[in-house]
Amino acid sequence: MAQFRGTESYVASRELEVAVNAAVALQRPLLVKGEPGTGKTVLAQEIAKALGYPLIEWHIKSTTKAQQGLYEYDAVSRLRDGQLGDPRVHDIANYIVRGKLWDAFEHETPVVLLIDEIDKADIEFPNDLLLELDRMQFFVYETRKTVQARHRPVVIITSNNEKELPDAFLRRCFFHYIRFPDRETMEMIVRAHYPDIRRDLLREALNVFFEIREVDGLKKKPATSELLDWLKLLTIEDMPPEALRSSDAKTAIPPLYGALLKNEQDVHLFERLAFLARRRGG
Amino acid sequence: MFAPFILALRAAGVPASIMEYLALLRAMKEGVAGFSVDDFYHLSRAALVKDERHLDRFDRVFGEVFKGLESPQGEAPRELPEEWLRKLAEKVLTPEEMAQIKAMGDFDSLMETLKKRLEEQKGRHQGGSKWIGTAGTSPFGAYGYNPEGVRIGQDKSRHRRAVKVWDQRQFRDLDEDEALSSRNMKVALRRLRRFARTGAATELDLPGTIGATARNGGSLDLHMVPERHNAVKVLLLMDIGGSMDDHIRICQELFTAARSEFKHLEFWYFHNCLYERVWRTNRRRRETERPTFEMLRTYGPDWRVVIVGDATMSPYEIIQPGGSVEHWNEEAGQVWMSRLTRHFRKAAWLNPVPQDHWRYTQSIGILQRLMENRMYPLTLAGLETMARELAR
């Protein structure tokens, strides 16, 4: 059986490896939660890469219905075709549009199916998928056909915790909570992405990064993806590490902070804090 | 095989079921966990815990069941388990050093002395030659230059492997019964947001479609309309001053965070109990004061009212006219409270005082009754119940 290990571009903790392997071995969905920006979505891509399976992504929006993942019956175009006298109209199968789950079930090889941000959808959404995910089959009423999975796909479900998920659904999943990486792990993650970043620059940047995360009242704390973007900018601009050292009160706002702070209130908050620091310093 | 573990988990309030237990056993059989206790910890956590709020409880129960720690109630264990010390020592000391220790007396007696010292010692200590602390010559403590030194509580991640991850209790912040701090505020606000957002979907505009299809000469022309947004309006009343000063920081945090979450959020202050006047800004109280009647007239009964206050005062401040500590009030606080609850159908009281202490304060009981039992503690669990009650 294929085993999941962290890859060169993705640093996985042992607990994550155990959780993924358990989900793969028992063919149950793996529910992944965690702060935004801790790599929940990337995880599915890495699992697919590690296992050598293709990845099918199903991104959930607030308007997504469970049925859309199975199939949709396009009654409107059938009606139109009927009005225009198209011969296709006689076969109802022409108007069945396959969903992502159907694609995953009928794929020749096993696949990794990512159901991204399941909490965005309606509160009943997970319940509607219970049976389908449990038995890996569903029934198409229009054509009276049962679609059965050829290989049980590896299902990865991510959630940002905006809604509670129903208990019956949770009982069928394995669960993993991605903690925000500590400094050492963060260093490894950065090195995995930018192997030849300057050591002193990275050290100073991480100092600033974790300091910003400590600030109370930020609406959106910068996360891994923001740090990576910021570091990229810093290297492109060829910023000297000294510029990041905030001992000089006038530069309390880090350079190129736009990559780290993503909303206006946060930037304002930061400017105010910097102003206060300057006043105290002066 | 692990039945006592599951039972202990359930007793501690982690809702693990038979199904999850069986899944765990199957995963063990499949050999997912290997044979290390760390792996078993990770595996059982992935299989049995489905909510990050329960992770801390799981850690405590795991520690108790598998290592015989003290029971999960109360504070962190005061006594260092001997086996833990030994492990730490083994990790840090070289074999020669271990031999030296043996020469000094056997390892167990060294541990015994260490335990005794730990008990004798009250505070943190640095330097010196007997007490445990940092930079001393005593055999115990960190950074010491005694070769027999035992390292305690230093550089715990240097081996990049958690000694005992469950003992670190990293998920304590996520437990729902802990009082709110700015860290778990975010999770709490998601709960509040639940009743501020009620579904967004596009639906078929039936009359529009029929009309357009008819105009089109019979060929179908679909029209969609956005679903009506039923934005919930929230009125926040905050108790300020007096006994609330202890809780003011926490409430302010909740309030500033909540302000950005809602589109329709109005806030007013009062002192201790609601009387005939409320005000908008505490600093400019005199200028922003308004009659409570005006507030009741301004906001319709469809507004949800959330009162934040500790409800801790003399009972006279609620039941007697003129009972207010600040001014002469013509009508008693309870009259105003019942006016409020009669006007607003959906109202709730958030109380920062821990719920266990409520019954010792008479005024909390009175207000609880006036609020028709809709008083909730200011914790994640309390907020959740409140949100559910207000959304109903």
TrEMBL record, chain A:
Pfam families: AAA
SUPFAM superfamilies the record matches: P-loop containing nucleoside triphosphate hydrolases
Domain AAA+ ATPase: 26-184
InterPro entries: AAA+_ATPase (IPR003593), ATPase_AAA_core (IPR003959), CbbQ/NirQ/NorQ/GpvN (IPR050764), P-loop_NTPase (IPR027417)
UniProt cross-references to CDD domains, sorted A to Z: AAA
UniProt organism field: Neoroseomonas marina
SMART domains linked to this entry: AAA
Record's protein name: MoxR family ATPase
Molecular function as annotated in GO: ATP binding; ATP hydrolysis activity
From TrEMBL, chain B:
Protein name in the entry: VWA domain-containing protein
The species this protein was found in: Neoroseomonas marina
Organismal lineage: Bacteria, Pseudomonadati, Pseudomonadota, Alphaproteobacteria, Acetobacterales
Domain of life from the UniProt record: Bacteria
